[in-house]
């Protein structure tokens, strides 16, 4: 681990200054969702696809469509679900559809991250790749994503690479496009969502 990364990790873990994104309860309720048997797909559970818009997953604006004006530059991240704009169906019936939207300075994004971004906004799966908790906290000083279960830390500027804690791989990215003043989905997740068999820790649990 580089000196900078180590410093970041210590600062984040030591200070525990993460800001909850409002879905802490969900993170505890579904610790290893990705390991459950696959459910029958319905319009509410189908994965995000091209052209889907996003709606707030919780809070005062729950169910409202997200515009760029709703996303403060530099964070925090916002938890959203995709919505089919043609049918109006919100795809909240599948927890793996929970997504983090974060608006950042485009100049801070790595080249690979910039390919998936729209107006500096990036989208990632909110399901931790360690044991499947919700990545529900934002660390304002560092501008990083924090999973509260075991303090997994992801850098949204660098493809959500893991910079601290036990997650074995980055959060999957969701390519974005622009429609009017809204970020929209421009493809599927770049890798499997959640826990991948063979990469999960042996005998692990998501107890906090
Ligand atoms: S489930 Fe996220 S760090 Fe363990």
UniProtKB/TrEMBL annotation:
A GO molecular function held by the record: metal ion binding
Keyword Membrane (UniProt): yes
Matching PROSITE patterns: RIESKE (PS51296), TAT (PS51318)
Superkingdom of origin organism: Bacteria
Signal sequence, start to end: none
Ranges that cross the membrane: 12-35
Cofactor (UniProt): [2Fe-2S] cluster
InterPro entries, alphabetized: Rieske_2Fe-2S (IPR017941), Rieske_2Fe-2S_sf (IPR036922), Rieske_Fe-S_prot (IPR014349), Rieske_Fe-S_prot_C (IPR005805), TAT_signal (IPR006311)
Pfam families assigned to the protein according to its UniProt record, in alphabetical order: Rieske (PF00355)
A single cellular component GO annotation: membrane
Keyword Acetylation listed: no
Keywords recorded for this protein, A-Z: 2Fe-2S, Disulfide bond, Iron, Iron-sulfur, Membrane, Metal-binding, Transmembrane, Transmembrane helix
Sequence ranges assigned to domain Rieske in this UniProt record: 96-185
Protein name: Rieske (2Fe-2S) protein
